[in-house]
Hints:
The protein is mainly alpha-helical. Helix content is 66%, strand content 1%.
Amino acid sequence: MMRLAAKVSRSMRNGSSFSFPVPKPPLLSPPPIRQFSANSSTFTANPVALEMIKYATCLARDQKTEESYARGLLVLEQCESTQPDDNSKGLVELARSTLLFERGSHEAAIERLGKLQDLSLSSIAIKVAGSEALVGIYLERYQEDAASAVADLALQFLGTIRQEMGDGGGFEVLEARVKALKGLIELICGNLNSAQSVFEGVQRERFFNGNTTLSYGEFLHGMRKFSTAKELYQKVIRTMSEIKDFSDPNNLGACNMTSEEVAIAASCALGQLEAHMGNFNDAEEILTAALKKTEEHFGPHHPKIGVILTCIALMYRLKATAEHSSALLIQEGLFRRAIELLKAPPLEVDGASENVYRKDIIALARGGYAETLCVQKSRKAEGERLKNWAEAAWGNRWMSLGEALELSESSPKVPVVDTRICRAV
């Protein structure tokens, strides 16, 4: 099922347009189930591979430069060539895709995830982690159809395993993770009833991990079910802090779906929730801590920093409105820095362009910045230009950009920034 990813990657590198195909029956045929054992979700990873992956990751993130990431990737390349089994090679591919993603090489990360298809894996957990990472990248790139196709293939694959091997093999947790991906896709597409059905089904199965719990929390948060969402966010943060063995198959992740990304996203979501509830002191403390963690993990100039800064600026905007005060200078400074870090395109570039990455967040930042300028007579024209671009870029199905910025109490839904995929859900 990963060959589709490689096809997308080749098309992107060649500069040609690519329309994600509707999967045909042959593509849905999974590998022979006989190669998977009942304990395939609890494989024992090669300790040498784990140590080399850990070393390469630390090497890459030490200075967070092109050179340091290149050194880390070289170690992983050498590591893969020495591994005696494909499961260990699969772990290396997950690590390589993660470092490439963090460096901003999304197409190369997709290509590495596609290489998992060529391995004779007995570990279903590695396949699920690869599919989850692909979905995460596609969602960040606004390719919902591609994300949905990957999730559908993974579900059919796991369904076939369930039919042939029955329950009790540890596959249920992995299946719940893929179902939660479908719920996140439905949420982003504005299909709230479908998203609710998926998330409630996963909840009944009681197989939650960080990503599944976080996505369901975002759904509840967006629907203003604040107390329940808060419990889920806190559960994610607590669970992530308790994880010690990142080689556990159920904890495997890659790219924007790693445990580090989940922990940061949960903290940022909790900070937003506190702001939506009017608890601004708590919101500021939580968002500031999330910002610090993001800087430590990605470095001070990564676009993810711009995402967190946008959330902080929006918190100050809400606070100023609630307290009938003015914090224009603070908001303006935060929005302007966020726009810079997000690598926002020039205003001449169409805000609705499919080639604009993170356009949801850029729209929020530019829209909020525009509001601070429009109240200044000498800068109103500049503010209007920013506002027009932001409104064109905003793609939320349930509210306008103005409604998202104002957050009226009468609105049935609030926007939630998901830092994993850099989108407002």
